[in-house]
Write a sequence for this structure.
């Protein structure tokens, strides 16, 4: 099969498409012929060996996919050959075939194409649990989203608006902010245009209830300062490359809660909240209430270029890789 292979750790251009043997099917797994896969910032980190977990090269990166089930292991009943499915895996999605835990696959809802099904794997699930279970976002809340043009950020904009919050989107370009506004942001701030703290104070004189931060770096503290008394700040990731340090007096003075979210830990320690959020999110997807914004699509041969777009912070919403054209047409 053709697959995008990371043969040695490094920048995105270490990834090249090769012919390699299809992966063996293990117990409890299903083989999926991939129609589309989608990128996430952690893919860039895994290829560079800068993620929390290392995968020894050679390996096929890619953590979210949609396609058709081609084979199931003995005893698997969760899915059957011929099912259209979407799912997540740690690595392995940027290939014509991927083997995935059958229990992790979910049916593609009627009316959802495989590109959008693949793009709904990580960012929207992350954003939904962050907003609902961690931040306790309620209708009428003021929500500030950093990195609002990126995968997790734009998903948080869409879902925050769908949950009835008033969303302020913060990003680095007019293009990203235009998309954020189209996806539900009421207010937008270009943090490169001036002082973020002053801009937030001007736009939110009463303060924010919740800040979602997938970026970190220099943006975190001014965003935290924009919270009103009792506000919640959720740290989700550090796409800027810098883990921020927050003066604790800011937390003390306003009774602020600083909260963290990491998917594996959340899934392991809060299974009931996970299940409830997953069901609510599946319902939003099936009803067409939330549709991922696909900002760019690449063929499998250009996986390195797709990774570079994400690595540079230039992606808007989700970046998708078309894999098997015949499956995409299903
Ligand atoms: N906790 C979890 O379970 C979980 C799950 C998924 C992802 N994450 C993390 O969440 C973060 C965002 O992931 P994503 O998939 O949404 O990424 P993405 O689509 O690439 O978006 C990241 C955003 O970060 C900003 N940014 C600032 N400096 C950057 C730089 N040097 N390089 C790249 N981006 C930069 C950009 O926004 P501006 O417009 O402001 O520049 C960009 O839009 C990552 O750190 C990822 O590891 C965490």
């Amino acid at each position: 099969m053709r697959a995008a292979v990371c043969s040695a750790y490094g920048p995105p251009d270490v990834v090249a498409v090769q012919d390699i043997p299809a992966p063996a099917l293990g117990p409890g797994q299903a083989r999926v012929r991939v129609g589309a896969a989608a990128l996430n910032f952690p893919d860039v980190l895994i290829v560079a060996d800068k993620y929390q977990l290392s995968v020894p090269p050679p390996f096929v990166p890619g953590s979210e996919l949609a396609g058709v089930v081609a084979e199931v292991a003995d005893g698997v009943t969760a899915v059957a050959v011929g099912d259209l499915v979407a799912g997540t895996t740690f690595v392995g999605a940027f290939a014509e075939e991927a083997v995935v835990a059958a229990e992790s696959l979910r049916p593609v809802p009627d009316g959802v194409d495989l590109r959008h099904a693949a793009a709904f794997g990580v960012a929207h699930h992350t954003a939904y649990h962050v907003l609902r279970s961690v931040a306790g976002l309620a209708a009428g809340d003021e929500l500030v989203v950093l990195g609002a043009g990126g995968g997790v950020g734009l998903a948080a904009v869409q879902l925050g608006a769908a949950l009835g919050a008033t969303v302020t989107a913060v990003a680095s370009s007019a293009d990203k902010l235009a998309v954020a506004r189209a996806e539900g942001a009421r207010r937008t701030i270009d943090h490169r245009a001036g002082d973020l703290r002053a801009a937030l104070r001007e736009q939110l004189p009463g303060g924010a209830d919740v800040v979602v931060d997938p970026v970190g770096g220099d943006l975190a503290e001014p965003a935290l300062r924009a919270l009103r008394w009792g506000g919640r700040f959720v740290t989700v990731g550090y796409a800027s490359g810098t883990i921020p340090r927050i003066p604790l007096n800011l937390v003390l003075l306003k009774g602020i809660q600083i909260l963290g979210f990491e998917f594996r830990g959340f899934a392991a320690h809060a299974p009931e909240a996970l299940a409830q959020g997953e069901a609510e999110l599946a319902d939003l997807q099936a009803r067409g209430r939330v549709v991922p914004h696909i900002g760019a699509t690449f063929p499998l041969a250009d996986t390195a270029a797709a990774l570079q777009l994400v690595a540079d912070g230039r992606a808007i919403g989700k970046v998708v890789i078309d894999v098997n054209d015949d499956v995409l047409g299903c």
Remarks:
- The pocket of NAP is lined by residues 40-42, 122-123, 126, 147, 149-153, 171-172, 176, 214-215, 236-241, 261-263, 310, 313, 315 (CB under 6 Å).
- Residues 9 and 178 are 35 Å apart (CA to CA).
- The two ends are 20 Å apart (CA to CA).
